[in-house]
Amino acid sequence: MALQLLDDRSDGEVSLGSTPTVKHAAAELCIIGAASGIGAADPGCGLGPEALREYGLASQLRDHGLNAVWADIVRRPALRAGTEGIKEIIAYCEELAAAVGQALHSGRRVAVIGGDHSCAIASWSAAASALRRPLGLVWIDAHMDSHTPATSPSGALHGMPLAILLGVGPPALTDLLYPGAKLRPENVCLVGVRSYEPEEAELLRRLGVRVITMDEARARGLVRSLGEAFAIASRGTVAVGLSIDLDAIDPTDAPGVGTPAPHGLRGLDLVESLRRLAPRPVLAEIAEFNPLRDREDKTARLVIDLLSACWSR
Question: Model's pTM, two decimal places?
Answer without folding.
Answer: 0.89
